[in-house]
Amino acid sequence: MLAAACLALPAFAQDPGQVTQTQFDDAYQQLLKNPQDQTLLINYANIGIRLKNYEAVIPPLESMLMSNPDDADLKVKIGSLYQLLGSTLMAKHYFEDAVDTPDASQETIDQAKERLRGL
After folding, report:
1. What share of the chain in percent tops pLDDT 90?
2. pTM of the prediction?
3. DSSP 48-111
4. Which residue has the higher pLDDT, 6 or 106?
């Protein structure tokens, strides 16, 4: 859950001018060299989110979720990205899964339910 907490989601309103495509490409290259490094993954995801490159960010986050299947916060974050892409069915899947995750915090469950109502 610590890794998911570091992601700048759902704060999507950040100024994309603060990061560049070159930084995103560099972060990707670093991630390719060490795909298990969650710090690199979080950096890549944060840059991609700030650039609104959600499609590129989702697969590594889903990979992180495979290593942390009970991370309800990460499920909400991935669902939020799918929602931004207009993929309602995928968003719904992640939000419902977050609600059903054992030991999910009430705050996370409430956030997932709120997102479900917004679909």
Report:
1. 69
2. 0.82
3. HHHTT-HHHHHHHHHHHHHH-TT-HHHHHHHHHHHHHTT-HHHHHHHHHHHHTSTT--HHHHHH
4. 106
Structure tokens at 99: 């609600």
15: Cβ contacts below 8 Å, ≥ 6 apart: 50
Say if residue 10 is preceded by a cis peptide, omega within 30 of 0.
yes
Give the pLDDT mean for 97-104. 96
Who contacts 84 (Cβ-Cβ below 8 Å, separation ≥6)? 12, 54
* CATH topology assigned to domain 69-119: Methane Monooxygenase Hydroxylase; Chain G, domain 1 (1.20.58)
